[in-house]
Amino acid sequence: MDITEIFKYVAVVWREMCQRKFKVAFVVTIISFAIMFVGILRPPSYSSSITIFADNQNIIKPLLGAKAAVTELKQNRSNQVRDIIYSPRILSEVVDSVYGESAFSTPLSKDIKMSQVRSNISVEGRSGNYIQVSYKDDSAERTFEILNKVVAVFIEDSADTKREESRSAFNFIDQQAASYKALLLKAEDKLKSFQSTNFDGTEAEVNSRIATLRSSIEELNIQIQESNTRTASLKKQLSRENKYASNDYESAVYNTQLRELKKQKAALQINYEDSYPAIVDINYQINDLEKVISEVGTKKSSQKAVNADFNPLYEELRSLSSAAQIEHRTLLNRLKAFNRLLDEAYERRKRIANNKAELSELTRDYSVFQTQYEEMLTKKEKARISMVLDIQGQGVNYKLQEAATYPNKPIGARFIHFFAAGPLVALLIVIAIFVAKILVDSKIRFSSQIKEIEGVTLLAGIPHATSSAENRTRRVHNTFLLLYCIVCMFGYVAIALAYKYGASLENIIALGGF
Fold first, then answer.
1. How far apart are CA 431 and CA 419, in angstroms?
2. Is 42 exposed, middle or buried (0-12, 13-18, 19+ CB in 10 A)?
């Protein structure tokens, strides 16, 4: 469609509107007043915002290091702030503070108001740790008051929550530390009682004792075997030896005495002469022994006298045999004693093994409780320092970075916009209606439409002509239309001015004559 066709449609639309000018004026008036009344009935919307800064940078944390755990925020701070502000606890306190606790007759009405307040609150995260809290309402004063109250209650609740969280953590860790201390003392008492009632020693000592007893038993067995051999040998010799002395034995005894005397004489002759009394006495003894030996050799002495003496070798052998038997019995008794001690050592080692297992269990419990108790003491000190930091306002704090400004002007479409847009929108609606009617209508309004009809040829075009009577009638109609427009415009402006300067809707309707 070219520009010529567009102008043709504009002319046709204008002609159609002129033919129905009163209807068009009435429709435009109705639509304009309807749009203006929508602006009147639509309450203004006021909005204000506060910027909060989540301060988590302080000098305490680098100074204390790992000795204190400063309460921190989650990664998505805006979501956390939104959840806290939207919570019924915060909204209930805000509603009670702004509207009063007695302003709601039923809990349902209070819940409805809390839902309205929640829907009007907006929380958005900005760059860094900045968070913007906005609120909108149809009252500027109420918007400003509720926004400040919401942020104030949130900051106070956040600080109280941090302190309560730190205090609860400290109390919990304190209770756990006391519980582990009681368990540690109980385990220590059990360990002391066990050690005070068990004196069996260590496993190494018992093993050493067992090795010593085994070595002693082996030596005793060897000694018993030697004793058996010695006893048997002495019994055999004793059975072969005559109980009484013989000539050979007597001669051997005298010869032995003679040799001893000669040795004594030789020793004295080294220092003394032969006339020395002791040497002379020894010589007499030697002479006597030589005579006796000669008599024994020639058997001049009486045989009866010889047989009357006992055999000294026999007596010695009998004495040795008795001593050997006594020693053998002593060794056997010692062997029994060592075997009994060895059995007791084995039993002792069993007891030590059982005691070792019980001691290991007691020691393990004591070590576990001691480790846990020491860790709880460390955590308790950290929790105490953290609680002190939260009480003194350290850690992550929400600070009011940018205060709320009083909303002097409403936001969005205001009444002046509806007032100005009313006639214009009404006229555009009417034009759109006529354009749609022309496009849908099947009437022939242009000469070009005749050319499009097949088999029809356009010969000439006769323009529309008006008579003088029609012109007079048109002027009269235009005059009435102008008066109607002036009256409507006056009423339109009067209603707008009345609303602008605070007139109520009833007064405005009465003023407009509705």
1. 20
2. middle
Cα–Cα nearest to 387, from 134, 170, 84, 100: 170
Residue 383: enclosing H or E segment and its boundaries?
A: helix 312-391
Give the separation between CA 22 and CA 438, rounded to whole angstroms: 19
Cα–Cα distance measured from residue 349 to residue 209, given in angstroms and rounded to the nearest whole number: 10
DSSP per residue, 230-255: HHHHHHHHHHHS-SB--HHHHHHHHH
SS3 127: coil
What does the pLDDT look like over 104-139, one tens digit per residue?
888 888 888 888 888 888 888 877 678 888 888 877
Tokens found for residue 52: 């909060």
Calpha distance 417→325 (Å, rounded): 140
What's the pLDDT tens digit per position in 144-169? Answer: 888 888 888 888 877 777 777 777 77
How many angstroms separate the CA atoms of 487 and 151, rounded?
Answer: 52
What secondary structure letter does DSSP report for 59?
A: S
- For tokens 């070009």, the residue is 448
Max intra-chain CA distance, the chain: 220
Give the closest residue to 214 by CA, choosing from 323, 302, 345: 345
Any idea what DSSP says for residue 75? Answer: S
Strand order in the sheet with 121-125: 121-125, 130-137, 46-55, 397-402
| 45, 138 contact by CB (below 8 A) | yes
pLDDT at 412: 62
Q: Provide φ and ψ at 298, rounded to 5°.
A: -90, 0
Give the orientation angle of helix 88-99 with respect to helix 107-120, to 10 degrees.
100
Q: CA 418, CA 413: separation in Å to the nearest integer?
A: 7
φ, ψ dihedrals at 50, nearest 5°: -130, 140
Q: Please tell me the number of Cα atoms within 13 Å of 123 on its side-chain side.
A: 20
Distance CA 162, CA 395 (A): 9
Beta bridge partners of 214: none
State the DSSP H helix or E strand holding residue 54, giving kind and residue range, or none if neither: strand 46-55
Write out 355-368 in H/E/C secondary structure. Answer: HHHHHHHHHHHHHH
| 3-state class (DSSP) for residue 396 | coil
Strands 121-125 and 130-137, by their bridges, are antiparallel
Where residue 65 falls (left for φ over 0; alpha for ψ -120 to 50; beta otherwise) is left
Instruction: Reply yes or no on whether the pLDDT at 300 is more than 70.
Output: no
Residue 274 Cα distances to 262, 264, 284, angstroms: 13, 13, 12
Q: What number of residues does the chain have?
A: 514
**Structure tokens given for 169:** 């953590």
Q: Is the dihedral of CA 388, 393, 394, 398 positive or negative?
A: positive
| Nearest Cα to Cα of residue 59 among 377, 392, 400, 378 | 392
251 burial (CB, 10 Å; 0-12 / 13-18 / 19+) is middle
